[in-house]
Structures are given as structure tokens and as C-alpha cells.
Amino acid sequence: MNTEELADSNARDLVRSYFERNPLPEMDVDNPGMEIILNGLANIQRFIGEVSMGEGSLIASAPILLLAASVVIILGVLGEAFFKKTGIPDIAFLMILGVMIGPVIGIVQPAAVIEIVPYFAALALIIIMFDGGYNLKIGQILKTAHFSVILVILGFAAAVGTVSVFAHYGLGWEWLDSILLGTIVGGSSSIIVFGLVRKLRISEKAKSMLSFESALTDILSTIVAFILFEAVLTGSFSIDLLGETLGRAIAVGLILGFGVGIPWMFIISKLSNAQHNYMLTLGVLFLLFFLANSFGESGALTALVFGLMLGNKKYLLKKLRIKLPEHTIDNSLHSQVTFIVRAFFFVFVGLLASFGQIEYVIFGIVAAVAIYIGRIIITHTALVRGFSKLDKKVTSVMIPRGLAAAVLATIPLTMGLQNGEAYPQIIFFIILSSVIITTIGLGSAKKIEPPEGSGGFVTETKDK
């Protein structure tokens, strides 16, 4: 008897034994006619067993997961079309889809999500940071770096301070725990910001400023949060340790990014006819992530700088006065890979949702609104001239929290910190609320005339 026949036999025996223990009136399970009914019920039972999770399983069967993946991809494509038509991002819809297939339907259980976090987070982080660096212009960064740094310092300090005060006085947490919560959600998500600003008809100066700011705050939040994790465990905090850790992370990121990025520009030029040169570039990117982690850096800055080198090859070679064959990475393949990672990332954040205590839900919403109010004040204070009305509006609503916050939210729980189970619940609602605020804000921003004067709010993304 093969495996399929054995499964059918077991299913029929299971249904038969049920009716033998719980007979219906005037029912004879040995009647030939009943055999047909039993077979039909057995098939139904076997089908349910195939499409649902097994006992103790944390993830649904492969067909159901593939169905979920199909829905994510289709919604991702439709969402991009929706964004181009309306100017309203699809981020919130994909996150809600994650809530549906995770906490609501239970295709993926929370315990499985926590297990997946380190792997998916690493992949999403390096792909998106590389893409962000690849699409940044060094010339624009140099022109807007001072604005980006001002936004980083003021925005990060305001967000950490606001959330810390709310957590201390609203939830009754200790100051160190409250500051840790504020740090985790202190910066905007580079994954979301990179994807949005590339498609908006704001000035190149504003695009560069917002992209660079989000990359810096992602890195800053991650580094400071890990220092605070140790501080909460030991009960002590050192400014010297903070400065030393930040300095080491920046040095490692720049040395690896520049040290490998510049030589790779020359190597990839010689491999212009190689069939798998883009995959080879990804292989080098993954290696850089491993090396950065080995030397104590998250890998985010390394991936960003590596992408920056390859994306600005023509600019750098011109400055160095070196001539090489004209070659860029396969933009069509790169855009597809980036699209897949982004779409699944937003759904992944929805999988982290937890609806435990109502006060955490309220706190998350209020904290996101407070961050938004602070952002408006900072925007009008820092961007006093040189930016259009649309630039300022988009800057003021660009507060989405994302990957860094979602990943960092799970660490207090795994480390056994006080209030560890509260971090994922609170931070999910801060992420969701901040994304909704950004979505609504960009929807209202489309009424403002673009700096160029015509052509609509959303622009088509062109390959380099």
C-alpha cells in the first residue's frame, strides 16, 4: 500500500470509528451505501488535513503558504498601480493583509514569526539599504547632508523624548525602559521612505535629504537600542560606551563599503558580459553583511555605502578621471528582487501584530500622533528656505516606522527584559499608526502643485 492509499485508509477508519462511537439514529455503518458516504467524508477530512496545519505546527501547509504568497504578490502589483493613480501608498493595506493571515486566520503563528524575524530582517535590511544607496546621488547628498543631519538629530531626539515621557508617566515604566522604547521607534523606516520618495514628484534635493535621513536614523536606532539592551540588563548606562560603539559601527561600515565597493566597480566592468553578474553582486553584498556583523556593525551602513558606490560609478570615475566600459547592474532584475522583498516586508510587519491589552493599542496610536506633531514642528523649523511647499508637506508626514522597529521590538522578549511582552504589541501599533498617518498625509499632499508645475504627484520610476 502506497502513502496515498494509506492516508485514504486512515481517513476512512477515522470517520468510521467516529460514527461507531456516535451513531446517528437508524444508521448502519456496515451498509454498502454508507461506504460511499464514509469515503466522501474521509476525502473531506483528508483535504482539511492537507490544507490546514498539523497538530502543533506553527506554519500552514505549503499549498496554503503559496496561496498567501500569491495574494501578497498580486496585491503588491495592484498596490503600485493604485499608488500611481491616487498617490496613496499601499503600505497599510499590505500590513492589514499580514494581520489577516497571521493573528486573525492563523496561517502563520506568532511563535513562528519570532523565529523567522532574524533571517527575514537580515535579508530585507541589506537588499533595501543596497537599493537605497544605489539610487542616491552623491552630488545631491553633499548638497543636503546638513539638512539630513539636522532632521536626524532633532527628529530622533524628539521621538525618543516624547515616547519616553509617555511610557514613564502613562504606563508607569522605569526611565531606562521608557527610553529604550523611544529609541526603538526613534527613526523613520528607510525601507518605506526609499520606496516612496523615488515615486513622488518632489525635488531631487528633498528626495536625497529624506532618503539619507531615514538611512541614518535606522542605523542610529539600531546601535543605540543594542547599547540600551545591555544597559537595562546591567542597570547601568555609559555615554563613553555609546560614543565608542557608534564610532566603531560607522568606521566598519565606511571601510567595508568603500573598501569593497570601489574595487567592485572595476571588477563588474570587466564582467559586463557575464550572465549572472547581478547575482554575483548579491553574493558579495551578503559576504559584506557577514563581515560587518563579525566586526560589530549591523550591516546596514555597509550595504548602503556599497550600493552608493555602484550607483554612482559614472560620477566617481569622472572625479577620479578613470575610463572604464559603461556597465550597470541589471536594473530589471534588481527592481523585481526589491519589489518582492518590499511587498513581503509590509505583510511580515502585519504578522507581528498582537492584540493583548487595549492600553497598549491606545498608547501606540497616541505615540504615533505625538511623533507626527513633533515632525511638523521640526519641518517648519529646519526647512526654512530652498524647499517647495510640496517638499515641506511630504517631509512633515514622512514618519513611517518599519523594519528596524519591528525587529528590535522582539529582542526584549527573547532577552527576558522587564515588560518584554509589551514591546511587540506597543511597537506594532506605533508602526501601523505611523504608516496610516503617512498614507493619509501623502494622499492630501497630491493636491499641492509639484515643483516642476505639471505632470501629477506620482512619477514613473526610470532605470538608471
Automatic annotation (TrEMBL):
GO molecular function: antiporter activity
Limits of the Cation/H+ exchanger transmembrane domain: 74-438
Biological processes annotated in GO: proton transmembrane transport
Keywords noted in UniProt: Antiport, Cell membrane, Ion transport, Membrane, Transmembrane, Transmembrane helix, Transport
Any one Pfam family match given in the protein's UniProt record, by short name: Na_H_Exchanger
GO CC annotation terms, alphabetical: plasma membrane
Name of the protein in its database record: Peptidase
Organism: Candidatus Nitrosopelagicus brevis
